[in-house]
Every structure is written in C-alpha cells, then in structure tokens.
Design a protein that fits this description.
- The protein has helices spanning 2-6, 20-24, 49-52, 58-69, 82-88, 150-169, 184-190; strands at residues 30-32, 38-40, 73-74, 77-78, 101-102, 107-111, 114-123, 126-133, 138-144, 192-195, 200-206, 209-214, 221-226, 229-233, 238-245, 248-251, 254-259.
- With 279 residues, it is α+β, with helices and mostly antiparallel strands.
- The strands form four sheets. Strands 10-11-12-13-14-15-16-17 form an eight-stranded antiparallel barrel. The protein has a five-stranded antiparallel beta sheet with strand order 5-6-7-8-9, sandwiched between helices. A two-stranded antiparallel ribbon has the order 1-2.
- The model has no long low-confidence stretch (mean pLDDT 94).
C-alpha cells in the first residue's frame, strides 16, 4: 500500500503499519459513555488494516482529496484512471437515475443540489470524515478524538462544504444552525413511549437531557430544539426532526401516539449474575 498508493499521492506521513515514531506522534483518543464517563482509548491494532488502520494527518488527507480532483493522479504518479473514479462515484446496485446510496468506497449523496462523496472512518477513540463535492473540486477532512462521534464529524464536514461553496460562488456565508437544550418542563412532559403502525420510539429524561431511541434499532441521541422543532443532535446521530403535539410526535409524515409503558417482567434468577456493564 505504501508503494502503490501512499507514495504516488505524496502521503509521506501516512501508513497502514506505522512505526514507533508515528505511533508516538498520534493524538490520544478518548472513549466515552452515555452517562458521562471518559477514559483513554486502547491503542492496539484491530487487525483489519484496509478498513480502519490508516494512521494519517489532515494535510495528507488533503493530498488524497487533491488526487481525486486531479482524476486519480498524485504528485508522484497516477493511482486511478478518471473513468475508474467516475465508476466509484456511481451508486451501485441501483437504477441508472439513483443519486444517493453507496458507490465503491464512497457514500454518495446530495448537498445543495450537487453530488457529495464521502467516507467515514473510525478507530477506538477517534472518528473521521472525508467529504467532497467532486465536480466543484471542493473537499474537507475532519477528525475528532472522541470515540465513534461520526455524526459530529459528518455535520462539520457538510457545514464546511456549504461555506466553501458559498465562498467559491461569491455568496454570503450561510449561518450554521445551532440547536438549544430542552427546558426541564418540556423534557418531563415529552418523556415516554410513542408508537405508530410502522414505528416505535422512546424518549427518556436522563442527565438533564431528553434521549431519543428508535425501538427498532439505531443509536441513542439527545433531542434538542431548533426553533419549535425537536432535532436528534448527539455524537452518534444527528438530523432527524420531530414535531410535537398533545401526546403525539410527527416524524417524516408518520404520526406516533403516546402509549402506556408496561414494566417488563423481572429477569429470571439464572440471569441475575449476567446483569452489569460490558465493554
């Protein structure tokens, strides 16, 4: 990989098998829990090199983006042909008109009417987002030392791309919307379980926040206010919006109504020894 990819792209401070000096120079990652605890992230390799073992810098990721914009050519040689990149940026296993989904190595979406490509990265204690508007040749790399906080890095990347695009086009820079915490009275009034024919969610008041959990799966995240709209806004998830009414929530046109919560039966005695925290 060093010879075939990183060297042609002039990514001299990047490696899938970093030596002691590179490891010593890495930032320290932080693990965290939903109840507010933090501790140092483990530093051992995960053993899946191609997936999440690249040690790199923001400047080297900028060189990677520059090579994408140059049609696959880096300062020291070509890595990919332009036609190959075009194929990688096409949505796979979808109809010819599909504009969102997954390509080859890149998530494909739309941002302000333009094609957006991106790839999220994760390792214990870190989260990274590399995103670009390839036709406009605008890109950004974002990294944080908070474990799995990809919702944060992706949001920062998108806001940065919007600012870059506005600056390129000579438009006023758009304001970045900021959410606000829910008042305590609203948290208590909204807490509970809501259900429709297609979906069920639970809102739980905990640690001065109202936590949103889709009961079919997904990451828990705090709900915050954007005007009078509830917005899922946390490290693990961001973006879903909900409107509130008397004992109901509206999400994406689906109305979920409050339902009575039934306390589950006590765990069998043979399971008592398993109750605890795992990591």
């Amino acid at each position: 990989m060093d010879r075939a990819v990183l060297a042609p792209l002039a990514m001299a401070r990047s490696s899938f098998a970093p030596g002691p000096a590179a490891v010593a120079g890495r930032a320290r990652g932080t693990m965290w829990t939903l109840d507010g605890r933090t501790f140092d992230a483990p530093a051992f390799p995960l053993g899946i090199g191609p997936a999440c073992e690249l040690t790199t810098t923001m400047l080297d990721l900028g060189r990677f983006l520059s090579a994408l914009f140059a049609g696959g050519r880096g300062p020291n040689g070509r890595v990919l042909e332009p036609a190959t990149l075009d194929a990688m940026w096409g949505v796979q296993f979808a109809g010819p008109a599909a504009s969102t989904g997954y390509g080859i190595g890149f998530a494909i979406s739309r941002l302000e009417g333009r094609q957006r490509i991106g790839h999220s990265g994760w390792h214990y204690g870190f989260a990274t987002e590399v995103a670009a508007l390839p036709r406009e040749r605008l890109g950004v790399a974002v990294s944080t030392t908070a474990d799995a906080a990809n919702a944060v890095t992706e949001r920062i990347a998108d806001e940065a791309l919007r600012l870059l695009l506005a600056a390129r086009e000579g438009r006023p820079l758009p304001a970045t919307p900021a959410t606000a915490p829910l008042p305590a009275q609203a948290r208590r009034a909204l807490a509970g379980r809501y259900r429709s024919a297609a979906r069920a969610v639970e809102l739980t008041e905990r640690d001065s926040a109202l936590w949103f959990q889709d009961l079919e799966g997904g990451m828990p995240a705090p709900l915050r206010l954007l005007g009078d709209t509830l917005v899922v806004d946390g490290r693990l998830a961001f973006g879903e919006r909900l409107l509130r009414g008397p004992d109901l929530l509206v999400a994406g046109g689906d109305t979920l109504r409050r339902v009575a919560e039934r306390r589950p039966a006590a765990a069998p005695e043979r399971w008592r020894g398993l109750v605890g925290e795992y990591g």
